[in-house]
Amino acid sequence: MDQEKFNRIVDDMNEFSGVKDIYLLNSDGEVIFKSGILELTKEEGKKLLKAWKEKEPSLTYQNFRYAILKNDDIQLAAKNIVGDKGNIAGSITKEGDYLLIHTDSETEMILLEWSILVNKLAWS
């Protein structure tokens, strides 16, 4: 995915309230592009992708645990249940990268809707 397409996805995502951070990672966990305040290190990205790819029950983002509610080869949906730290939704892109978003806990859409939207935009 190139910068222009990523920027279009960011614009599309920002039409909805509650999006905090958007990342495009390569298969090694390195951040290719990002939008938002929080940084994601390569080590954090690697661990996040490992949890996704190996179908672990949870992942860690910004030192908080997120229970993985949906996990398949294409999509990811995880929720921070204890700390009210929001949700993580992700999709692999047609180029083989990983598009991930971090949202607030309370948004106009439920987590699985976010997951579907991320997947739709990643494949558009």
Note the run of SSEs as H and E.
Answer: HEEHEEEEEH
Structural class: alpha+beta
Task: Tell how many strands the DSSP assignment holds.
Answer: 7
- Which homologous superfamily in CATH is the superfamily? Dynein light chain 2a, cytoplasmic
CATH class: Alpha Beta
Strand content: 25-35%
Question: How does CATH name the architecture?
Answer: 2-Layer Sandwich
Total of DSSP H or I helical runs spanning 4+ residues: 3
Mean residue pLDDT: 94
Low-confidence stretches: none
Number of domains: 1
| Largest sheet properties | 7 strands, antiparallel
Q: Would you kindly provide a written description of the structure presented here, covering whatever features stand out?
A:
The chain is an alpha+beta fold and 124 residues long. The chain has one domain (3-122): 2-Layer Sandwich (Beta-Lactamase), CATH 3.30.450. It contains three helices and seven strands, in the order αββαβββββα. The radius of gyration is 13 Å and the shape is globular. The N and C termini lie close together (11 Å).
Summarize the SSE layout with pairings.
Elements: H1 3-13, E1 19-25, E2 31-35, H2 42-53, E3 58-61, E4 64-71, E5 75-79, E6 87-92, E7 98-103, H3 111-122
Antiparallel strand pairs: 1-2, 1-7, 3-4, 4-5, 5-6, 6-7
Question: What are the key terms here?
Answer:
about 120 residues, Beta-Lactamase, about 35% strand
Short characterization:
The protein has 124 residues and is α+β, with helices and mostly antiparallel strands. It has three helices and seven strands, in the order αββαβββββα. The longest helix has 12 residues.
